[in-house]
Structures are given as structure tokens and as C-alpha cells.
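Worked problem 6 (solution included).
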Amino acid sequence: MVLRLRLARVSTPGGARRHAPLYNIVLAHARTARDSLPLEVLGTYNPIPKLPAGYSESDVKEGKARKAKDIKVDVARAKYWLGVGAQPSDTVWRLLSMIGLLEPKYLPTGPQTEKALKAVRFPTHLPNSQASTSREGAVMEAIKEAAAAKQA
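Solution. The predicted structure is:
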């Protein structure tokens, strides 16, 4: 069965309050409910930005401090589960990339991004002599070199 790293909502410390979310970063089977019993709790995520210790609201307005969201993760266990094939949800992927555990995953959205990606991937405005300098040309050259190295 597929294992996923995902968020499970829990009540806030001091009782359940509306508009004060708190999430556990958990390992669970992919088909179980969001708040069902997880296999392992790997950390917590508090999406409400808080001030760092020793700063005030006026420091934020002046630009001396910045509110930060609270992410706590057992890095060793997260690395282990990712290593054995657990798949993080998109949100957990983003959180793990914030702490430097995974590479950022950029998802293109909107028609403008799609057009820009097509223009970069398949440059039609370049003459054949310049095609080798494009990314696609470099990839094709690398494939040809690898094939030549295999034959030699």
C-alpha cells in the first residue's frame, strides 16, 4: 500500500478553537481519511505567522523582524520515509523544501506560463546553426555522446 506524508489537522493547545489551525505532519496510508490514526507523527506545522522572541509589532513595521510560520520536523525520520518511497503531498513537499529537505517543486499555472515554457523548450526562432546552444540541442548532443561512448 502507498504511504504518504501529509497534514492532519489537530486541535490547538488549550482546546479546539476556530480559525487557529494546527497540523501534524504524519505518515499514513494514501487511502485513509485525513484525521485517521497515522502510522507515525513526524512533526508539526502552525500556519499562523508568529513574531520571533524578543521582537515587537513595531519591529515588523520597521522591517527589522519578520513573522514566521512554525515548522517542526524530525528530519532523520522524514529522510528515512522519503528514502523508502513515501510520497509527500504537495503541501508537505512545499514545507519540506522550506526547511531544505527537498528541492522546490514549481508548478506552472496559467496560460502565460504554458506559452513561456513552450517557447523555452522548443525554440523555433533559432536557425539550425544555433540550435546546439539551446537547451534541447544540448540534451540531444549529450544523448549522442552517451550512445557513442556505449559503442566504443
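Discussion: The chain has two domains: 3-98, 110-151.
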